[in-house]
Aldehyde dehydrogenase domain-containing protein
Amino acid sequence: MPLEKDSRGRSVVPIFINGSPLPINPFAVQPVTSSAFSGNVLDTGRSGWKRASANTRRDVIIRAADLFEERKEELIKAQMDETSCQRGWAMINVQLTVGYLREIASCVSHIKGQIPTIDKPDAFAFVFKEPVGPVLVIPPWNAALVLATRAITSALGAGCSVVLKASELSPLTHSLIVDIYHQAGLPPGVLNSLQTSRENAAEITEHLIANPSIRKIEFIGSAAVGRIIGATAAKYLKPVLMELGGKGPAIVLDDANLQKAAVLCAKGATIHHGQICFSTERIIVLESVAKQFQGLLVKAMEKEQGGQAVHSGIAEKARDILQQAKDNGNEFLIGDPEMAVKNGVKPSIVVVDPKTPKDQLRIVDEETFGPSASLYVVDSDIEAIRLANSSAYGLNATIHSTNMERALKMGKELEYGQVHVNCISVYTSVTGPQGGVKGSGWGRQNADWGLEEFVQEKFITYHGADADVPAAK
């Protein structure tokens, strides 16, 4: 998709509607509420795509996966340029994206209805699974490629058309997804995209949600914005799939491989400047191994580079959270509230008393989006579970233990959408469900679970000629 120029010569990512980019006025930003973005465009794309066979939908997704691999260098560069991420993170995004696409494609033909029994002679019943209709996808910038593509692909795989509201921080990356899908043969009007400034986002998002043609919304982002999206969707009676922020705990038990746990915790806290909702935000360690583990953790953190935040505001917020902890007298095992590089906070571990109330210290239950973690020392498994579950969030957690039974029992007690044992917190599997509980949203993505989010049941009965006719009263 070629970029256009505004009146100042700056590159502009065009709005993509009904299979082609809209020409822009070089002297003004076009309002999204223009007639080109009417429900008619959405209906055009929906009517054909919802009737496309499972094979057709699968084949388009597979071709798109091939193109993501072919254009990986272009995709890596776009992510690095827009979000200041390191090449490794951008590459992981491409690899995961391809994996998600291939898995979703393999599941498209799994969508099945039922023929239930019915309590009436000479009558038959059918339950069909149908696409919910046009979906508004609002993805984030921090895993710009993989999260947007997964959301789009699950909806497309189910037979829904999509409107992508690209992040203002990664419009080029998101536009490349649209370009690749159309290169793969997706019909015009099935996938449309637009972006807006942060200042106009609320107004335009409500306009999109209110559009009668939009039947469902998927939002991936912060809990604060998620509350607004959820309230707006409720206003217009639209269902929402939401994956929101987290405050992921890593629980280190006394039978853990402490060296491995330290390395995984350090990496989980610092990857992509901690700007991942799956980041290791809290480390909870049993007292009997706390001293030994802390030493190993410091050594592991010394080897990590926190990288850069997407912009100064993110870095300054992360620094401010650390500064408050320091002003409150909390010990820093490593790091401090300073920038290591421009827009990059020093990797830090802050010791916090498990009894510290949330309203006293922001780091207790506020997502930092910085390369840091708070460390808590507890005296029992029960206390570790209590502390982990005290968060308002429930996206992901990790447990470090060599005792499988103990770890699985603890995992069942944790109030999180996914729990990983002896693994880095920044982990997902293309074949397993992903989503949060509590303040981390609702609904599940990936594979069959993601497809089911975008279909709905329709109950049809057939009553034969010999079926009973109700007697008149």
In short: Confidence is low (pLDDT under 50) at residues 27-36. The CA atoms of residues 13 and 175 lie 7 Å apart.
